[in-house]
Each structure stands twice: as structure tokens, then as C-alpha cells.
Amino acid sequence: MFCVLLLLGLAVKSAVLAHWVLVGFLIALAGIIFVNLLALWRHSAARVPLSVLVAVLTATVILTTFYVGISGAIWMFPVLVGLRFAASPAQYQPARLVLIVMVPLVVLYHGDAGNAGRLLAAALISSAYLWLAEGEMVSLRAKLDRDEGRDPLTRAFSRASLEQDREMISRLAPVGLVVIRLDGVMALRNQGQDRQADKLIASVAREIIPILSTRERLYRLGNSEFMIGLAGWRAFESYELGQHICRSVQPTLPEGVNAQSGAAEVHDPEEFESALARAMAGLDTAPTGVAPFSPEVL
């Protein structure tokens, strides 16, 4: 929220200086961050695509450099670092390249060739360091995920972790179970499109994990299925969450891949397999989207 207030304050300052195009982009950026913050607080998916956020942020830095000069250009460096936390590599890496090229060119346009050269050199060095550091961070995160019992691809907990956690069911009962299946992913794998299938699985996990609290866990069951464990949830509540997740992720899936959900609840560790089987059975009878609710899941 502080960032939103800071951007609005900069917009007011820019209005005083009659930098109207910059004012528009600052207000747009503040609005995007605010809307997505509201979505985060409500445990839902981002309302404004991250690709739009990255594009507006990149344009704002370039415009700040154009209007303010070298003092505006220094904002390029925190943005180069922060972009990796704002979007996927396919989105932030082109934005980095645009900033590295455009910001020094704008400074050169103002006639400051010396600082333009220094900015270009510093940006190239910073980006090279970030590229190397991010590779190490990915490797380290994968190791830590394995140590925590997580799947390195999706960061969901593994089936082995699920087998250990089921012993807590009696203490946390009732425990809601939501199974999410991406119907069509196996067809992609059968066609030799394993990389695309992995990207889909990982993207869906990224949509689900932020909306879960510390008492709720996402587990990867197989090549195309996840399970969410919900401490204190009843079956009908779990069903509603499954519906919400399917509605959220379906627009992001390619043609031929459909999100389906099934729900159940469990009170005792010995009943877990039968409850999971009921949730999975709901997937087999579900149309595209979500499983029909029936008293059987109770």
C-alpha cells in the first residue's frame, strides 16, 4: 500500500511540473498494484495480468527518465531487480532488455553521452549478475523444496508428504479435500509435448498456492492432478473452493485442456483413501469445469 501512495504522490508532483503523460502512467501503475493487492487480500487471482503490470512499469521508468533525466534513470536499477518478482521470466526478461537499451538512449537524447555510457555499462553488469544469481537461486530453491518434501516443478507438497500429513487428520478434523485435475495434460504428454505440459502444471500451482492459508496445503498427486487439504473445512465448502479455482484457471488453459474438481471431507486417517476416492470419482462424472455436488461427498 505504501508503494501505491508513493506513486500517487509522484503523480501529483509530476502534475505540478505538467508532465501529463507521466502522470497518466503513474496513476495507471498505482491502480494496477492496488487492484491486484485487493485480489491478494481476498485470496483470488490477480485481476490485472502481470504482463500488463510489467509493460506499464517499464514505460513509467522510461518516461521518468525522459522528463526528469539522470535522476529518473536511476530507478532503472531497482526495477531490473524487482521485475523477477513481478512476473515470469518470459515476461520480465524482454522488459529488462528494453530498459537496458531505452534508458541510456533517452539520457543520450538529452545530450549526456557520458552518463548514457555509464548507465549502459552498469545496466549490463547488473543484468549479467542477476542472470547468474537467478540461476543459482533456482537451483537452491529446488534443493530446499526437495528437503521440505515439495515438488520442485510446482512447489506443491509431494505424495510422500501427504502420506505423513494424513496422521494429523484426527487432530484437524473435519478436513476438506479438493482434487483438481487438468484433463488433457496427459494427451499433451502422449504427443511428446512434455515441456508444455510441465508449464501448464506449474502455472496452475502458481495460481492456487497464493490463495491458501498456512492451515491449507496443496499436494501434487500425479502428472495432472493436485489435492488441497483444508483443515476445518466441510465438503460443501471444499466444493465451492474447487469451483472457484476451476473458474479462475480455465481462461489460462489452452484449448483441449479443462480444469475439473471433486470434493470430499474426512474425519479419520483410516478414512482418507476412501474420501480421496470419492473426490476422484467426482472428477470422472464432472463436465468441463467442476464436479457436480452430491451428498455422497459428505
UniProtKB/TrEMBL annotation:
Domain GGDEF, first and last residues per copy: 137-293
Membrane-crossing residue ranges in chain numbering: 24-41, 53-78, 90-109, 116-133
Keyword terms: Membrane, Transmembrane, Transmembrane helix
UniProt feature coiled coil, ranges: none
Protein name: GGDEF domain-containing protein
